[in-house]
Amino acid sequence: METLGRPCLRTVEAYRPGKPIAEVQRELGLRKVVKLASNENFLGASPRALAELRRAVKDSHLYPEGASPLLRRALAAAHGVSEGQVIVGNGSDEVIRLLCEALLGPEDEVVCSRHGFIRFKQQAMLMGAGVVETPMRGHTHDLAAMARAVTKRTKLVFVASPNNPTGTYNTRSEVDALLAALPSQCLLILDEAYAHYAEARPDYPRSLPGLVRQRPNLVVLRTFSKAYGLAGLRVGYGVGDAGLVAWLDRIRMPFNVALASQRAALAGLADAAFVRRSVALTAKNRAALVRALSALGLKTEESATNFLFCEAPLPGRELFERLLKRGVIVRSLDEYGLTRHVRISVGSASQNRALLFALRGALGETR
Ligand SMILES: Cc1ncc(COP(=O)(O)O)c(C=O)c1O
Question: Ligand 1 centroid vs 93 CA: distance in angstroms?
Fold first, then answer.
């Protein structure tokens, strides 16, 4: 493969997802395993989405409608944009991939932040594009530094806000200034996977529909994986310029989102009560977890998400291993170059209790 494979893929590593529960049970012979590694919704899935999913699986012998038209229409109405401005993907991850496939080649560059969501960099590398990484201000993206890093070769600037894995967000004025500084041929991809958890903050940008209407070079990404609790169904979407969306549609897999997933997401979209409950309970459990971690001497970054970015008193990988032995899966962040941190998803009260119990044991272990 070293000679057959495209040269730009030689340095690309496979994405390392949070360890699945079943794998840990098998490998360590544990019965009870708590997973706080992938920022899933501890409340489960939206009940309305689940009810529709049960109905929709009966139609599993049918191909879905390729462009997810009903979901697209509902999303357009929900966000005050036109249907042509919405693309639905197999998770927002697919939309990131489509953007890179449609726009990038070896002669192009993308600008990412040093500890920004790693999928941006990985997808750009897949296309052979150059990746320029700018330093952060603490653990928050420095959008002014990102603007300064833009050259004539830059096609995409990627900003996850709130960011995974650091949990921080950029303010409306920071995003406005970045957009104002970008040349028109350079797109800002604003990944708002965790928007529901951040949008109550007065300085969180109102990207949909406001900013997208004003700026044709802005694409906003959202997902059903977090506040709607539908990570397993793989539905996300992008909102941007209709001309760009038409390009993405050309290269999308013909049936990229499963029929049952489209139907469940459509029902989930209408489940505002579930989203409100998810956001409120997450905030409550997050605050309690921050206090409990701090009592154990662990510092966390202020989070606008459903996870905590936590400084480890030992190498993050080691803390991860020690917790794993005790049946709790968190995420170590070596691939981000963050060797002294772990990312911990906010869980239910009982999951968080199990985490804290395991943490006490893990921190008490002599090295
Ligand atoms: C910032 C960010 N963007 C995008 C995604 C991908 O989400 P999905 O593909 O499940 O929609 C994630 C997943 O955790 C994320 O944290």
Answer: 6
